[in-house]
## 1
Amino acid sequence: MKRNKFLTTLAAISLGAALLAGCSGNNNADSKENGNAAASNTESGNAASANNASSGDATNKEVESNAGTLPDKPTGTFSFFINSGATWDPAIWDWGGHHNAIGIFEGLVHYSQGKVVPGTATSWKEDGAKWKFTLRQDAKFSNGDPVTAEAFVLGIQRAVDPNTVKGTSKASSFLGDTHIVNYLDIQNGLKKVDELGVKAIDPYTLEIDLQEPDKSFLDKLAISNWQMPVDPKVVKLGVSDDTWTDPAKIVSNGPYMIDKLNVKTDMWLKPNPYYYGKVSLEKIHMTWSTPEIKQLLVFQNNESDMATLAAEDVPAVKGDSTLTNELNWFDTSISYTFQVRHSENPALQNEKVRQALTMAIDKQAIADKVLGGTGTPSYDGSITTWMADWIKNVGPQYDVAKAKELMKEAGYPDGKGFPTLVMLVPGADDKVAQAVQQLWQQNLGINVKYDGEEWGAYVTKFDESADPGTVSVVQNGVGPAVANWKETIVQTDPLHMELAKIALDGKAWENYRKIWNDSKLEQGDKNKQASDLFAANFSKDITDRYAKAADAYKKDDEAGLKDFVSWRMNTAWTFPIYTVRNGILLKPNVKGYFPMRMWLSTPPDWLNDITVS
Amino acid sequence: MSAIPQPLIELSQIRKVFRTSHGALTAVDSIDLIVERGSTIGLVGESGSGKSTVARMLLRLLTPTSGSIRILGEDVTGWSDKKLKPVRSMLQWVSQHPAAALFPNLTVGQNIMEPMRIHGIGMAQERQRKARGLLAKVGIPQEGFHAFPHELSGGQQQRVVIARALSVDPGCVVLDEAVSSLDVSVQAQILNLLQDLQEEMNLSYLFISHNLAVIRLVCDEVAVMFLGRVVESGKTREVFDHPLHPYTKKLLAAVPSFTPDGGVTQLDESSLLQGDPPSPLNIPSGCAFRSRCPYARERCAQERPLLRRVGTQDVACHFAEEIAAE
Amino acid sequence: MLVYVIRRVGYMIVALLALTLITFFLMKQAPGSFLTINIMQSGLQTSGHSSYSMDVLQEWSERYHIGEPWYMEYWGYLKGILTWDFGTSFQYPNTPIMSLLVKAFPISLGIALSSIILGLLISIPVGIFAAMRRNTWADSGAMFFSMLGTSIPAYILAVFLIMVFSLYLHWLPSMGWRDLKNYVIPVLALALPMTGSMSRYMRTSLVENLNKDYATTVIAKGGSKRDVIYRHVLRNSLIPLITIIGPHLAGMLMGTVMIEFMFGIPGMGQLFNNAAGSRDYPLIMVSTFLYTLVIMVMNLLVDIIYGLLDPRIRRSGMSD
């Protein structure tokens, strides 16, 4: 059991996807504690969500809620930008997959106005690690077939079944962060998919068995694609084919269904005629965006009801009173960070140097001047300031004098004798990375080289050691799985792995890579050799600190948890720079847009809350 | 036709001043020229002396700055292109580079028919018959009718240009260095052709050349130009045998002649023109030729010699009589 | 002429083969493979089943000859191209490459060709206008504006056009891909910068021909200026203009990429960019091949038209 979990996390080499949706692989630490009111013991469906629970967030303008006051007949068209989407199979992991979760499909629960609310499940009962969901009997698919417990079982089984993704070049939407009984053995081909801990007790009662109690289960369900039901009369186990990009063949159960679809161009949604409740909008138009599209112009031309501001557009919007009134600032949970890359040169193994590097970065100036407010200073990769305001005070602060002092203590007075620091960045013109480069050079007197690489080259070099004689940091985008700072500590077990792996010395890292890239080794042997290597080389301090943190979580020892976070920030293995904040323009006649902050693009969290008058 | 026979073309006191970025350039200054039907007038001079400018004014490709151009007694000086159109069939132009003058995208036949098309002469069939006739007349085999100009030799091209010029039955053909770019043997053929055609069609030629031998061969009368002015004119024979202007003398002295035994006479170095002519932008006072003239005296710097009758020629030199007496 | 075309087609085949080989090596030279990159960006590595990558690798190795000697792998692609059976790409294993191309390629080609045609339709009259009034203020004015066009990059011009035609006049959509209206701004944005060099070329070529004796001959023979331009000079001046269309087209197919991104147009730009970024070898090979093929065919067509316009080349068998 323990071994299995360890192996799983091995697969999470690192989260290299720069600033895409926060999907760090998550392993749940053993937590039988049951102290979170948000998600436990709720007979009714009024679960308050962690997403909105902690509010240290003065900048978010409240968008007027109108949930529950939908028109009798679907009216109006809402058009907005999306960033990605290639398949609408809920079993497939896709960056655009969350569009299923905001109203094309409807799961057991979903988000609405920042809270987890009942979806097809009207109520649920938590009994330790066993969850029983009662489904509504009037729910139907877009072809008129009923949505039964069987449909949910099939949907979840498809997502876990490793055969589904074979031949798609995609991963499963079931990332393994929710520990349904037997999921790992099924994924590894040791057990059959019908042994998964998901059962239909009767046509309208669904049971999900977890390996251990999970306070964040409902939150995780609400943003998941894998919990979606699929029509057993239409969809088969074990395959995903291109019917999932054909609107005529996609059968969904949300308030909306896909009407027209031109992948990477635009898509239209229309009301699902069989949806049990009212549907607010007559049409929804979703347009794929690229960084080159001038969303502001499109918005001003009334071709879109929504636009995401580019940093360079901020001054123009601030100078226009109409646009200023239409502007909403939505925080996301995704942070832009740098992290230490391995090198044979041990200069960055010195904590003082890393702290000096952190202290030399004026994050506020970057957020204001480079990003024009489209970012807020980030202090910790997984805990944002809007989740926990105190986070800004407990780590290393911007302090050039102290940074210089630390460099001197480390043996590099005024940067003398310090090796060249290479910044590995995707793209040739990353303004933030250039600002950091400048700050480091000016404040510390060290030589910093900007190494902008094409995406494929960047991804490839990500895990490689720095060039001999240099030290290096690499840009990364990270985010938590849940929006609750205490939960992030236990939900981000891989971050423990991450930190320990980043902290490995250059030689141990190269040995690890040798094992990992050895094509002659069987996967099982690879895993074993790697875990032995980690056991021998992982920093004891890091391992102990994480063990203590897990303990503090169990005891709900807030001071202990804060202490851990503070320690982690002071190790300065990573350099968080900013958390993405989206400037979203919305036409004044659009009501009910509440941002899904767990995703980079902050789409509306439930399309059926939106009305356009 | 008026009662008194008019000369075909009459240029009187024409002047052409070009404005350039370096100031006014007087290319042609107060020239009189008369072309009679059936005669051949030669214009000779160094390059830059204004020969071609005279030709272009005569063709009304350029408008004179002052002076007048009469064609059959009609003053056409200020006429627009539109008004000139009927007159233009009277005058045709044969230039130095036949390859550039022929329409590269048209066949030989089409080239010859093009002026007829412009002037709306005849139906397609008639034009073709006439073109074929002209082709024969200039000595090109009929297969050449469908050839493209680039497929012909230089001499053949020039024959086509001539045929094209003749297609509208002109009274006068301006031959601007028409044989200069051709081989000597070809030159002779073309000159013979031109003479035959002249007799046959009663043509007049304005023959422009720097080649004195050619001028002597074909021209009845000749005008020698220097820096935009005529310095001497008269019957070709007279001018060539008894030049009255020092410039004409120098020009003639520069022509090597053959000795009876097949050799070439030695040129007298001292009699050759020394140095370049003065810049037309900055013509010296008095006689423009004085800087290179062995006869130059005080008077030449102060007084510009005018064209005057001396014996059989018109000459612009203060000392023409002195030279005549030599 | 026929001999010439056959010989040119022969050269084309050799060049295309060489190009596929170069593309193949450059592609293999680029760091990373589809597998590693896809693992990084698709969340595969976090999906929790460690054997996945091995399974997939196995499957792809067989399908795409990965791990075999380079000539075998190359032959795999070449065979696909030769038999016009492109197979499937790494990114979309369920969709034949052909069906991706059939959607994307006509869009890009359509934009590129319409831009060039529009560019010519603008440049030729402007060039004639300027040449007929050469060295007047009208000439300088026309040339100034055309130079202005050249110095403004397409993407900046596009923003300007959006502001004028979408925001101010409300005539045209600012992005998207639905109907003919969506064509207008992208095509204008690509065509206008081109008119700068094209109209200058046209003007220079016209002036050069106008100075030739045959142009003077027309006037001397009583033809009008219109006769000179439209019957003789224009045709001969178009010849050099046609020769620059080939290179323009090549540039245009590249230029459409940026414009496609700006307007969200589902053309080759997006397809190729994704293919290159994710080391989707089959798609890279096929789309590079197709791009080159189109550029070469276009150049051949241009040369044939050139020959038809210029008898000097038509008759002498286009020896060079």
Note: The two ends of chain B are 46 Å apart (CA to CA).
## 2
Amino acid sequence: MPDRGGHFGPFGGKFVPETLMAALDELERAFRKARRDRAFRRELEDYLRRYAGRPTPLYPAARLSEALGGRRTYLKREDLLHTGAHKINNTLGQALLAIRMGKRRLIAETGAGQHGVATATVAARFGLQCVVFMGEEDMARQALNVFRMRLLGATVVPVTSGTRTLKDACNEAIRDWVTNVRTTHYCLGSVVGPHPYPMLVREFQSVIGQEARRQILEAEGRLPDYLLACVGGGSNAIGLFHPFVRDRRVRFIGVEAGGTGLRAGRHAATLVKGSPGVLHGARSLVLQDRHGQILETRSIAAGLDYPGVGPEHAYYQRIGRARYVAVSDAAALKGCALLAETEGIIPALEPAHAIGYLARLAPTLPRRSLIILGLSGRGDKDVETLARHLTTDGTNPRRV
Amino acid sequence: MERIRAAFERLRRARRKALIPFVMGGDPTLRVTRDLVRALAEAGADLVEIGMPFSDPLADGPVIQRASGRALAGGATPQAILRLIAQMRRTLRIPVVLLSYWNPVMQYGGGRARAGDPIPFIRDAAHAGASGLIVPDLPPEEAEGLPQAGSRFGLETVFLAAPTSPPERLRRIARASRGFIYYVSVTGTTGARARLPREWLQGVRQLRLITTTPICVGFGISTPAQAKMVARAADGVIVGSALLRTIEPHLRHPAALTKRAAAFLRALRRSV
């Protein structure tokens, strides 16, 4: 998986303007060649280790586990990576690929700003030009990350079309790529988009699950019963899940953004509420109306605020390999407070959704259950949002 | 019945090149689209492209994005646009080519369970009297069986070729295309360009060596001089953004809008 055309069963593929088709072929060839090349692998591993801070710990969250009735939970600490989230695993890989293809200009879309920061970071490190497209609304709610990108030398372009969030930032990045395809590499941030991106980003993010698998076997002498991760486009979830895909006993749960309720326009739970459609170059599940127009989404977590999802997730759901659920803004906020209180870790609002679901799931599981939760990013970028909601909401973190 | 092929056959015999304006269906209302298409046909259009609006038109520049947004705000749906075409067909003498992104085509007439089948759209579009279909985000490898399905109902499927298409892709595109091949003149999104890089000419010549299907060039053509230059090598000239830009200031005055659009097209006609 995927097949030669980039299909995961009925999902995936390449639905892009003809202008980009040759560039996608070039990227796929470069990727396949690099993957076989020991020098490339060694170089990437070295940057992951000495620049980004891999391996990340698999941390036994004892007080959190206790609070959840004793179901042992480990956290895969991607939040400890350089730039504060798992995104750098992918941008390091893609930057090295871009250099191999002779492309010295990187463009990226970003929602929460984490992928934008991770792209700007590697661009600075390798001396590449960097342009990041970001919805105007996201720029307002993630102002700190906008500043970080600019400090790193990137140009941040406000996107004012459509809903002014991640979806429109993707459109704008694709339009830039169509125009500058000969000199530019599109550093796509998730397992979405046309083939080969879902495969390529999965391969670069699979380091999460490969490490976690080794670490849990060392710590517990057995595989986990559950893997939990939040899903926007789904890159950190695929990165955690994929290396366990043949371990049939390990169950996967992806947690989507339930926003303020599962009615159209109030959430971003694509796998839970969407239908098959084509968005941003791939066939997958999509939130759309009956005429095929893409719907607006809403989530407190900018990084999950997206009406599409990676085709491999749509496929896992179709064949029953993974289960996907939605968690509301309020439950995510509670999850955030819970982790801060019990473990002294403030998660980003995106993985806070997974913690919110864990709080619901854990008490229903057998006592000996073993869980790994992908803690994809840290909460620094969300502190302002947290301050606003945890006071105005009446949700007092002290009482969670 | 292959109306597009027949139209190009007639043009070839008359030693004439096709002039193909693009308008967005339902921008700002369906009534305006109807008057506009009629005026463009009278002003000398040989075929007309009618766009179906989409929320995420990623191959389009700002002008067509805005047109798409206006049409959606005005409530244009695929069903309503097909009804409009059915109405117009009785009096319109030139072929209508629909242009739509793939997702609205796939969702048409399906609902959640049936979505993913383009046949209902193809059938209804053909019955309404449309002659062709262009899908800017559908390369031939994802369109398996579509040209054949189109032929069955009488809808000719046009694929796009670009300056970045290598020779083996040009062959594939030529094989899949019915009616004509849409050659994208510039590496970029739709939208008028002050200058047209010459890369399109080489592409058109390459295509000539491998196919006898007519080749029309679009993206970025805005002036009579550009149209004239393109028409010397290609079989047709497609003009979208430049036309929409001339009507944009007159959206509230349909009569002025159609008049301006017709004048703009006549100026192009004189040079094509």
Note: The longest strand of chain B covers residues 18-24.
